[in-house]
Amino acid sequence: MTVTSDLLTTERTPPRVATPPRPALPLATAAVAGVLVAVALTAATARSVSAALPGFSLPVAVCALVVAAAVLTQLRPALRAVRSSRTATKAWSEDRRADARRAASEAREDAWTVLGWCLTALVLLGAVWFLFANDRAVQKTFFDGEVIGISISEIASAFGTNLFIAVVAQVLILIWGLALALARMAPGRAGRPLRLLATTYIDGFRAVPAIIIIYLIGFGLPLAKVPFLSSLSPVWFAILALTLTYGAYVAEVFRAGIESIAPGQSAAARSLGLSQSATLRHVVLPQATRRVVPPLLNDFISLQKDTALVNVIGTIDAFNQSKIFASNHFNLSSVTVVAALFILITIPQARLVDRLVAREHRRGKGA
């Protein structure tokens, strides 16, 4: 009876109908259109730049030809995508399903690749057009070569103040953040007051913007005439404010790293006779530190950028120096120099963070 029921069920189940692959011809056509639009925009941008730079018509034309030739190299894969999409349609009609799906997949991949390069070209050409539009108004305001040449040496010298603040603050933040993390994780009833104080501090300083802390310390301590602290220079006020602020963030990073270590590690160390402090120092912290290096570097990248906030208390850093040039020349090119300096020191660190994250991910897979 069971066999008969199974046979009846099998006979009643409708056969599965194979669905054709998604049509790739519209996407392939869009890729061809994208190439043509990019070439047209190249010509329009070249005309705009030539009008803004009448003495450089020949170099502009050469650059436009190079860009147009580079864009036209994508016409071949775009046409190949059109051909593959038609091949997929024909193969499906001839009941060659595997060939149809393969051709449709190749068509979509070629089309998306072409569209990606075309989008990149459109963004870059749009940026060039924006710089030279309206008689080079944007270029003259933000990238004036004369103002950059006049200001770059003094701004680079003042940028040393930003680097000094960042380096000294990073060292102090590591110490202060680890102390806060350990205080917040203090065990037992005896550690409850420390946990309460550390939690209150961390929550409070993470809630207040860094610029307000810098302002309060930079102007408040001298007004209050606090012994020793009121006689510090604006640079050390900035270091103190950033240490207090970023210590709260780094404490949470350390705490997350410590809590990520398996409890069995500590239990094994204690079973071998190590004390609580020795277990923390020799077993837990070395492993936690390796895990928190990428997020710590992210915090320190933010710290380097926030050193520009110290201008509110009169510290002559790169940003303050650039504002002096900007007000004297009614031009913002000097501020662009500061942005370029921050980019030069920040991007390599960001790439380093990516490498460390990838290495930690590979290590985790290997484990």
Low-confidence stretches: 1-10
Q: What overall form do the CA principal axes indicate?
A: flat
H/E series: HHHHHHHHHHHHH
Per DSSP, what share of the residues sits in E-state strands of 2 or more residues? under 5%
Largest sheet: none
Query: Helix- and strand-based class?
Result: mainly alpha
Q: Measured on Cα atoms, how large is the radius of gyration?
A: 31 Å
- By DSSP, the count of extended strands is 0
How many H/I helical runs?
13
List keywords for this structure.
mainly alpha, 13 helices, 367 residues
Structure commentary:
The protein has 367 residues and is mainly α. Helices cover 83% and strands 0% of the residues. α2 (25-52) packs antiparallel against α4 (75-93) and α6 crosses α9 (234-259).
Layout: helices, strands, pairs:
Layout: H1 2-12, H2 25-52, H3 57-72, H4 75-93, H5 97-142, H6 145-184, H7 192-207, H8 210-224, H9 234-259, H10 263-271, H11 276-306, H12 318-329, H13 333-366
Helix pairs in contact: 2-3, 2-4, 2-5, 4-5, 6-7, 6-9, 6-12, 6-13, 7-9, 8-9, 9-11, 10-11, 11-13, 12-13
In short:
It is built from 13 helices and no strands. By secondary structure, the protein is mainly α.
